């Protein structure tokens, strides 16, 4: 399944280190697209150009403070992901809560970095997340799976399954989707893949693939979606150095 993408990854690795200016330009481009699309999937109305302006420290008229904070917070969360990758730290509950705290900082400080204490439902999905009482146990099970069975999986499969299982638990009141996409990219980046961008125009396919993973334990559609986006990011990098 991953032959073609592994070949492209090998080509990228063979050309490392990339020129500094090229690498910084790619990083800036993907940070912007990642932030814009991840927020737009959750309903943020800032355009990609408005998102760029907010990242530059300028306020956009007619937009809410929350929408501005979602951009700033997501930028800070990506920086934290890069720090984890640089330090080669293993995934932990502490990291997950830190990512969530960054995402909800000054938006909902009472629940930032804290597991939910009430029932939630995922709009439009067949799957219903577990009671809040079971979250600590299910998160512990998830991390045990990650530390043992998941290690033998291809990074795309591992990141995709981590994302799907995590969203099924839906451990936080708000911000789950953004944290999940950060965790997915964290797994890819640990193995040297560029971050991927799940585009807002693919939101319906993304949600349907996730719901299928929860209700049928069938991850194929989601793995294919992530593989396609991972190949797109690799192509971006390879075209920049060709």
Automatic annotation (TrEMBL):
Domain annotation Fido: ranges: 91-228
Annotated SUPFAM superfamilies: Fic-like
Protein name: Fic family protein
Domain of life: Bacteria
InterPro entries xrefs: Fido, Fido-like_dom_sf, Fido_containing
